Amino acid sequence: MSDTAPSDPKSHEYFDVWDLYEKIILENSMRHREVIDTIGQWSPYKRAGKTRILDLGCGDSYVVSCVHDGGDDVEYTGVDLSEDALAFACKRLEKTNWKLNFIQADILKALDGFKGTFDLVIAGYALHHLLDAEKEIALKGIRKLVAEDGAFLIYDMMPRDGEARDPYIRRFVHDVENVWGALDDQQRRETRKHIEENDFPISPGQWIDLAKDCKFDRHELLYRDENAFYALIVFA
Ligand SMILES: C[S@@+](CC[C@H](N)C(=O)[O-])C[C@H]1O[C@@H](n2cnc3c(N)ncnc32)[C@H](O)[C@@H]1O
């Protein structure tokens, strides 16, 4: 496993044609609706005054756009490698009053370049693309960017504690092939290939241990689906 970011990550290629992932979101195959409801009900999310948000692997910025009011005083920075995803994000958020900043870059490289802090750093279904050593580099970078009374929110694919990658990926692919409604056969094959080649999820317990090593003091598991595919954890 490498200690540095791959010079040319391939994890974004599946998302270069955003329409396919958009179908997955709209069908709620990856529980975006529950994630949005949970974040919306999490009281510290809506802060008085200005909110500076950093969204890593933002995709089309759908989740943040659903939780926050377009009129809120938000400074939003979205980072993604996919030009197509960023174009969708830009179109979605240009209707708001927010101050927008989109960066087409690898997450690990972008984390090094920020000055100042954010009230909220969000990473949704993005950090599982990183190898384990890269996840640690990312969390250390994120820790430095979270403001004193801010938080880091991660929602992602997360196996059961103690479940290895292979059985989890087999369970996940079974779900994609037998339960997800939105995809045709070709799209199912592409999705399976993307998952098998690019996804390296770790469990809630592993994220919590890693976050402790990276100097996050507190955590709360806000959401876990009944099949133990996904989870949402907040760190501060
Ligand atoms: C599954 S989508 C998630 C999008 C959105 N955050 C959501 O919650 O639905 C993963 C996103 O991460 C981006 N991505 C994957 N690896 C990346 C990397 N190393 N650096 C930046 N973006 C990356 C992809 O291009 C894609 O838009």
TrEMBL record:
Enzyme Commission code: 2.1.1.-
PANTHER family found in the cross-reference section: TRANS-ACONITATE 2-METHYLTRANSFERASE, TRANS-ACONITATE 2-METHYLTRANSFERASE-RELATED
Enzyme superclass (EC): transferase
Lineage of producing organism: Bacteria, Pseudomonadati, Verrucomicrobiota, Opitutia, Puniceicoccales
Coiled-coil regions listed in the entry: none
Keyword Methyltransferase attached: yes
SUPFAM superfamilies: S-adenosyl-L-methionine-dependent methyltransferases
Organism (species): Rubellicoccus peritrichatus
GO biological process: methylation
Positions of the Methyltransferase domain: 50-158
Keyword Methyltransferase: yes
Example GO molecular function: methyltransferase activity
Listed name of the protein: Class I SAM-dependent methyltransferase
Keywords for the protein's UniProt record, in alphabetical order: Methyltransferase, Transferase
